[in-house]
Amino acid sequence: TLLNTLPDLVWLKDTNGVFQMCNSKFERFLGLKENEIIGKTDYDFVVHELADYFRHNDLKAIQNGKPIANEETVTYADDGHEEVLETIKTPLYTSNGECIGVLGIGRDISERKRVVDQLKENEEQLRRFIEHAPASLAMFDNEMRYIAASRRWFEDFGLSGKELIGRCHYDIFPEIPERWKEIHQRCLAGEVLKSDEDSFEREDGTIYWVKWEVHPWFLADGAIGGIVIFSSNLNAQKQLEHERLHLQKQLNLAQRMESVGRLAGGVAHDFNNMLSVILGFAELAREKVSKDELLYEDLTEIQKAARRSMDITRQLLAFARKQNIQPVVLDLNEVIEQSLKLLRRLIGEDIHLLWHPDSEVWPVKMDPGQIDQILANLCINAKDAIKDVGKITIETARVTLSEEYCTEHLGFTPGDFVMLAISDSGCGMEQETLENIFEPFFTTKSLESGTGLGLATVYGILKQNDGFIHVYSEPGAGTTFKLYIPRYHGTSRQAEAITPKPLPKGQGETILVLDDELSILKLTETILTSLGYSVLIAETPALAITLARQHPSEVSLLITDVIMPDMNGRDLAAAIKKLQPDMHCLFMSGYTADVIAHHGVLQEGVHFLQKPFARRDLAETVNTILKDGRSE
């Protein structure tokens, strides 16, 4: 009865392996009755190989004289299904020590085995999940020893090639901040903690930005078994944010520069009109007095001040990219070489000027005067940055920038460029200064030494010519400006040098002058009259048309302002042309190039004079227009 009520299987075999008895549990295990089992051997119930194994273990127990424990998988001979047993086989002896057989006790562990195998499979699946998780993920026990870690965890924290499992996290990172340890301990106490942004220093010294979560994990009895850390790499996001801030700075700078450009364009008309009057009448007055008189010297100073004001206006317009220019195809090396003598005088004898041209530099299309402006402004800045002795280096090179390179370097544009570099051995600049150097009126010099328009002018010229500029500088290490001018792909033609000529005179031709600014009108009349022309003046378009009717076939040239309240210069010229078909036209304006172009004046073959203008400018322009119709 006791044997039949045991939850375990019990059986007895003699020394030959023949079953002598068994309990009810064993009967159910084999699916047979005891009388169907007694007198038979294992070979009658299980596959031959397993019966051999059972027989071997029985004999081993008899020979050793002590119990043998095993885990045995039983495969049935009739249907092939399997069960798993934990067994203990004990030899039985008589009182005189003779072995009479083997007593077997077994426990069916098939279900437990399936559960254990399933747990192992689940653990393996969890391990694979963690290892291949797309995020950084690590699992720790309550001593902060690694249980599992994803590949991204290895990559993000610079742990590639290291063995983590079983090792303490604090041994891997001995200098981990105390705040992180505190976070781990709070999580081990049951808290769930999160951070939208944090940083971590890798072993190589680089900073790794993360967004993390820390969760406790629990054992079957509800106790906390450890923690799981999830983290997301924010480095790419940080890089994008950095680039966004950089682009925002560039946008703000561009907007500030555009505002100043609009201001420059808005005041150019009136300011240039006044400068024309000051410069023109000062020049006329100076011709009427002797050089020995004190007044002559005063008038000379007025002229200098007016010209200086003209230079400032031109710099503002160049910065605003609204300066009237005459671009030609040229060899940059040749233009620079023609300027070297002047540049050496400009920087003085204490500074050594070095020139390293690329012998096969590509042609570019620019106004030669703009190149002179660039060289003068940058060399003056370099000179001011050098204390006592030093050197300035000018060099040219051919540069091709790829799409990939420009993607990684903000501000660069792909294509072929001629690079003009101007370097100095001066004091260099700090980052704060570098961020502001192209802003108009920003200067580190005294008020007497600079207007803050030099570099703004250079910036504007480069933008006007579809180029760009980059600056490299460190305090105490000098500065290098690299200017990138687009390559010209057509046929190269060098700008022709202009030989100064004597001031040309008129031959009594009649010129009709129209300007709504009375002072400009009077100045133009005075200059033209002094040059030998007959001058008709009008303050309004209506009066100009009336004068044209009153002097049929007499007017050789119409000089008119472009923008006027009642009628623009182009429409006026067309109206008078109907009355004077052989008449030539010369347009003038103090407005900027983009405003004039909007009124359809700046077209090829149209004569235009930018205010303010000097007496020679007016004389030579008028002479050029009228000379074809004069008799020899």
Would you mind describing this structure in some detail?
The protein is α+β, with helices and mostly antiparallel strands and 632 residues long. Helix 10 packs across helix 15 (454-464) and helix 11 runs parallel beside helix 12. A five-stranded antiparallel β-sheet has the order 2-1-5-4-3, with helices on both faces. The chain contains 20 helices and 22 strands.
In short:
41% of the residues lie in helices and 24% in strands. By secondary structure, it is of the alpha+beta class.
Map the helices and strands.
Elements: H1 2-5, E1 9-13, E2 19-22, H2 24-30, H3 34-37, H4 48-64, E3 68-75, E4 82-93, E5 99-108, H5 110-132, E6 136-141, E7 146-149, H6 151-156, H7 169-172, H8 178-188, E8 193-201, E9 207-218, E10 224-233, H9 235-287, H10 294-319, E11 328-330, H11 332-347, E12 351-356, E13 364-366, H12 368-385, E14 390-401, H13 403-408, E15 415-424, H14 431-434, H15 454-464, E16 468-473, E17 479-486, E18 510-514, H16 518-530, E19 534-538, H17 541-550, E20 555-561, H18 569-579, E21 584-589, H19 593-598, E22 608-610, H20 615-626
Helix pairs in contact: 9-10, 9-16, 10-15, 11-12, 12-15, 17-18
Helical segment tally? 20
Classification by helices and strands: alpha+beta
Could you give a short account of the major beta sheet?
5 strands, antiparallel
The N- and C-terminal alpha carbons lie at a distance of: 151 Å
* Radius of gyration from the alpha-carbon trace, in angstroms: 49 Å
Strand count:
22
